[in-house]
Amino acid sequence: MSKEIILEKIEQAVKILNEKEIDMWMTYVRETGSMKDPMMDTIVGTNATWQSAFIITKSGNTYAIVGSLELANMKAVDTYKNIKGYLKSIKEPLLEVLNECKPNKIAVNYSLNSSLGDGLTHGLYLELLDHLKDTKFANALISSEEIVSSLRGRKSSVELNLMKEAVKETLKIFDEVTKFMKPGMTEKQVAAFVQDITAKRGFEPAWEKEYCPSVFTGPDTAGAHSGPTDKVIEPGHVINMDFGIKYNGYCSDLQRTWYVLHPNEEKAPAEVQKGFDIIVESITRAANNLKPGKKGFEIDEIARNYIQIQGYSEYPHGLGHQVGKLCHDGGCLLGPKWERYGNVPFIEVEEGNVFTLEPRLTIPNYGIATVEEEVIVTKEGCEFISERQKEIYLIK
Amino acid sequence: MSKEIILEKIEQAVKILNEKEIDMWMTYVRETGSMKDPMMDTIVGTNATWQSAFIITKSGNTYAIVGSLELANMKAVDTYKNIKGYLKSIKEPLLEVLNECKPNKIAVNYSLNSSLGDGLTHGLYLELLDHLKDTKFANALISSEEIVSSLRGRKSSVELNLMKEAVKETLKIFDEVTKFMKPGMTEKQVAAFVQDITAKRGFEPAWEKEYCPSVFTGPDTAGAHSGPTDKVIEPGHVINMDFGIKYNGYCSDLQRTWYVLHPNEEKAPAEVQKGFDIIVESITRAANNLKPGKKGFEIDEIARNYIQIQGYSEYPHGLGHQVGKLCHDGGCLLGPKWERYGNVPFIEVEEGNVFTLEPRLTIPNYGIATVEEEVIVTKEGCEFISERQKEIYLIK
Fold it and tell me: Which residue is closest to A207 within chain B, CA to CA?
């Protein structure tokens, strides 16, 4: 990640701390080579081995406290104004910084709702409490989830440009797949073709390569988040593919639907066409209502209810998630009020958020119709950053 | 990671649960694509998006509870005997399993001392407590750090073979560097040469590629955990390089030291030779004392004291760490009793542990001498798995 984007995000963080009246945000980590707080790539830009604290204050100051062996590296990375090293324990330099800044509230990265805001491990949390006991900061710790949600969600113009490029490159690959796919091929062959192009162009898959892309052909497929199988593409199948790339650190996440024609067919059967059209229309209706201030579940309900009213089962997931440095990014989710989603469907949509819209329905005996687009939330609505699929793609 | 090794590690875990009289070990995660509990690769072998629990019991039973969209994937991975899916909340299937197993103690992955045993985030810990409140399991949670420490530390024969191969391939690369390095090259050029060979042979760097390898030439270098610079190799420099590869999922971690001859020199100056020999001897002394039952700090002290008695400053880190799937692996550390190391220098060495031995000293006006070897702890002592560097390498 470039230093430029990190400094831009730190500046944004200072603004958010002022909006939310939080004195200090501290990212407290160790051994990030083995497990990395997702905030490290956003606001630090390097790794840390020993216990380290990356502190941003409401007044715009920044402090990095790192092990002495990593001082030189942190200075070279040059994203923090004040850099302190220690040899035997982080406690003393940490308390020095706190005593200098005197924060009433210190946001740290734990969250029941957002995995992105939950980078602090329980063991490190206990350690931090131990360092702060007998000081006036012992009761100052609060969750940083609102900060993280806004910071990851509000895309800067540099970030948005990278995301648009990622989408464009992904759609090119979808076009090539449309030309490539033929009856008789297996899901795995299609996936291998896509992975090959992805690697040749120097892109990484946006999520675990075992199921990036996911390819599902015909009825009774394994469902989302599963890898491609040896199932063979046959005439009469509805095929869908879920795929994204990581482009200069930013992800895309898109889905498209195809129908495999029988030798004597020229278009998809009426049931297939109907199912597909309902997916497209549900996306249009959701997008027409998406704007700052709406809550996530309100947008999910529009698509979900529309699909159910047409006589199909509700999709077993949210309508859409934010995209960014990770495929699942940001706070607010366009999802239903299910317990496993915690509070994220209740968070308000903000300007600058990039969401997927990805409803799904099963067309009995044919397969699953899903289309996934990406939109950017503007001041008063939203705009598609992916060129929409409005017609089902036909394979001969 | 192959299914074979994962099943081997699960079997080992059951044995450890019996040794330590712990009824159940639960790895509780979500969104492991963004931040992954280090145990996932050891005992699960795939990712999980929604809240998921991977449970191993003392009686040898295993349960995976995952989101419904990931059921098919989990069945395909096939590392758990009982696989349960859920749609809206994990609470119900989780309590079902607990009620079936009736554990008195449930080990979960938090630890003040070991980052490898600290994969549970604080937010997920709070969520878990919330699921368990009003049940008899509310007070059953304990730290899994002893389990994790033993499980990662005790290398199976399959693991050990992979690690020996990793070391052998790494030493080959060191040999090639010895032939390649010449006065006038920069640290960055040497590092680029190493990274190029590594990539061509299909290996990954064992740690962040920004400083894998680290290359330090001459006096006043940046010190460990820093990337190579534009500093030029000159006659009279002591050079050291810290480098490792990941080979089929297992890491190596080794260091070697060179001296750059002046045109009229045929061997290293006496001070350089002396510093180098002290490093080699301190490794021999530490290895002669390393065996099961020793505590980490006891071994560190042997090398540390020997170096200090010879009139050099103590090295600013531990003598050695365990190596495995990660470059810094396992529990017990051969380190001093400094606060930042927590309890890990107090843990006992076990048979099957693979440690580095990597003392360091500064030779004034020349540079830093470090040699890092790897040893496997046997029933009654230890054996080197790296062919030792006993003579300083000379560059013309």
Answer: B33
Q: What is the pLDDT of residues B137-193, one digit of tens each?
A: 999 999 999 999 999 999 988 899 999 999 999 999 999 999 999 999 999 999 999
Minimal C-alpha gap between B71 and chain A (Å): 8
A293/A291 Cα distance (integer angstroms): 6
* pTM of the entire predicted model: 0.80
**What is the complex's ipTM, to 2 decimals?**
0.79
**Cα gap A183→A199, rounded to integer Å:** 25
Asked, colleague to colleague, whether A3-152 and A154-395 share their fold, the answer is no
DSSP line for A83-142: EEEESS-SHHHHHHHHHHH--S-EEES--SS-GGG--SBHHHHHHHHHHHTTSTTTT-EE
Categorize the per-residue pLDDT at B204 as very low, low, confident or very high, splitting at 50, 70 and 90: very high
Question: How far is Cα A351 from Cα A153, in angstroms, rounded to an integer?
Answer: 9
Q: Considering all CA atoms of chain B, what is the largest pairwise distance in Å, rounded to the nearest integer?
A: 81
* pLDDT exceeds cutoff 90 at B69: no
Where do the domains of chain B lie? Answer: 3-152, 154-395
Question: What is the CATH number that goes with domain B154-395?
Answer: 3.90.230.10
Using alpha carbons, select from B215, B214, B175 the residue that is nearest to residue B197. Answer: B175
User: Taking CA atoms, what residue in B is nearest to A121?
Assistant: B121
Substitution target from A2, A27, A39, A118 for chain B, most B beta carbons within 10 A: A118
Q: According to the model, what pLDDT value does residue A224 have?
A: 57
Contacts of B117 in chain A (CB under 8 A): 123
- Residue A336 in tokens: 């239903």
The 10s digit of each residue's pLDDT in A201-239 is 999 999 988 889 999 999 977 665 678 999 999 999 999
Q: Which CATH architecture has domain A3-152?
A: 3-Layer(aba) Sandwich (3.40)
- φ and ψ at residue A332, rounded to 5 degrees: -50, 135
Q: Please, which residues bridge with residue B348 across strands? A: B295
